[in-house]
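Write out this protein's structure.
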Amino acid sequence: MAQNKMNKNEKIATYNPSGVGKEGSIYGLPFNFEESNIILLPVPWDVTVSYGVGTHEGPQAILDASQQVDLYDFDNPDGWESGIFMLDISEDIKASGKTARMKANEIIKFLEKGGDISSHATLQKNLEEVNQACAEMVSWVFEQTTSLLARGKMVGLIGGDHSTPLGYLQAINNKYDNFGILHIDAHADLREAYEGFTYSHASIMYNALSQLPNIKKLVQVGVRDISHEEMELIDQSNGRIISFFDPYLKEQLFLGKNWDYLCEKIVKELPHHVYISYDIDGLDPKLCPGTGTPVPGGLEVEMVNYLIGKIEESGRKIIGFDLVEVGAGEWDGNVGARVLFKLCNMAEIFAKQND
């Protein structure tokens, strides 16, 4: 019987998870959209990045590297059976991002030379066009994720830069009246319209908190590159933003506290429903050298995996996730694919739980 004519149970029974996977599908899995519990939405977009470029190729790098990921997961050995399906990478979004990126780059270079956009008519027009293109990307992500959630799918968004999940967070905000964000990142991303870009990659959490009232808590882990204004915003948030800065975490470890103890403190700050926003630059840059804005220090993959496991242990529930800022390099794709596979397998455990 041809595999595409089999039902899901027949595919599970006949598929060899230790064998060669299906070419072109994420992790070589045999499942189609309908058969998959987890749907991955790629967003090839890095318009406003202020340092390195190339994360718009992150989804493709992850897809290519996923063929080399073995399917046994220590936390969820049969997790692959739930079905993971990656939607096609949108060429329209990619093309729009490329055009907007060229205009944004001119603006960034002008600002770095001390220029004033308000006195430059052409660049002012470019800024308006970039902001409009970014707004359209956010709307597209909102529409896509709203539709997927309505169909009962667990959604994982793959960036692209960190501006890409805002539309998904808007969809989550419409579905849940109380949720928190676990934010893994080297940066706080709390700048308002950084460099004039309303939907800057450095503004994702500012935009989310200012626009989405159902976000009750933003819990940041691994931040180590932050501005004075962002620190003031955290200090004045009345506990809505809790940041476990990388220097603090390292100091506690050096003083003899163990990671389990620190994870307990982190998880305690989260509400019942948790969205994970995972910027790969939260990791040590040896693991993500091609990310947009690498910063020395950071977390190990296993540390984040353990933290997510503590969320499960606590009885809380993951309601969605993103993985962003993965670079185009082969090693970046390799690490990104493995991080994403763990997120999918952990999310599947939570998806089986009742609200």
